[in-house]
Design goal:
InterPro entries: Fe-transptr_FeoA-like, FeoA, FeoA_core_dom, Transcriptional_repressor_C. This protein has two helices and six strands, in the order E-E-H-E-E-E-H-E. The protein is α+β, with helices and mostly antiparallel strands. The chain has one domain: Roll (SH3 type barrels), CATH 2.30.30.90.
């Protein structure tokens, strides 16, 4: 288990818990970032910029401070 912030690029992970304020948690869940869903970090912004994430077929940007508050577990990389 680790924070989403520490996840390596292109490493699949499962969201375990959101330790974010209720309003942000509600918004993230509406975008698909909720416990049980698979998430991948696609890119990291320069100089402390946001992370680009993929959740299912949705891509979104998330501030690093919020990514530190999301607990994930890594999944095996799928051969394709």
């Amino acid at each position: 288990m680790c924070p989403l912030f520490e996840l390596s690029l292109e490493t699949p992970a499962r969201v375990l818990k959101l330790h974010t304020p209720a309003e942000l948690t509600q918004r993230l869940c509406a975008l698909g970032l909720r416990p049980g869903r698979e998430v991948t970090v696609l890119r990291r912004g320069w100089l402390g910029g946001p992370l680009q994430l993929r959740i299912g077929s949705t891509e979104l940007m998330l501030r690093r401070e919020h990514a530190r508050a999301i607990e994930v577990e890594t999944l095996p990389v799928r051969e394709g």
